[in-house]
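mind reviewing this stuff:

——
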Amino acid sequence: MKDKKLIVLYVLMLIVGIALLFTKSTSEEKSSQNIPVQVTVKQEPKNEMEQITIAVAKRDIPQRTILTTDDYFFKTIEINPNSADKAKYITNAKQIHAYVTRNNIVSGTLLEHDFIASPSSQDFILLSLKPGNFMYPFKLSQADSYLIKNLHSGDLVDLYVFYGEETVAGRNNKENKYVSPSRDFISNRMKPIIVGKRVLLLESNTDKSTDYNIGKIQLELTNQEIKLVSTLMTNAQIFMYPSVFSGNVQDGLQLLSDKEKDWPLSNKDIFSPTQINRLRGN
């Protein structure tokens, strides 16, 4: 009898143990289901676009063209701020005006620095010269300083010779001769000799000890024009002024009228006899 009671007691203890085991497993399972799981989501950086203003070809532009506002305009586009292409584009007028094109450019092309050459570069000079033309340097005196300050590469200038008529005592009689300039400034006259010539380069003189000239200006001249200028400069005074012509003249001699080609231009003094500050133009 006592053995039966012990057996029953062991069975009950076994049942209670099994029940407790299942209860604990269920409780742990529910507990694990209630714990919130933290999931880390990697956020990709936002790729914000940047707006920049870029020069665009307004028309088809041939090689060797010196650029003006007629050749380009600016428009705003969006670009990746981290893009390496950003630095290659032209973004303001100072980077393009009066530059020369290295190659032909199609209308609508976004203009890049590699497409053009700076007026201060050797490439500019080589590209700017028309076939058969030459660079010709003129030394500028202090009186010409306004040219350095106001002209730029690509601008046009006209060349004038200043001269006057003087009476010189000859062996048998007195002769009238032309000198440049006349010792009597009232009798001085001016005559256009070459017009509409393009400035290739302006050079300021950095040597302060040479006060007699402030720099050089390089013009594009034909062979015939160089011969005329070189001959006159041996004993004549030549002056340069901003051109009255709107376009580059390939042959600045041919454009002069027959009257201007004659020597002298006229017998009138350069100054009006009634108003000394009034210059007679061409």
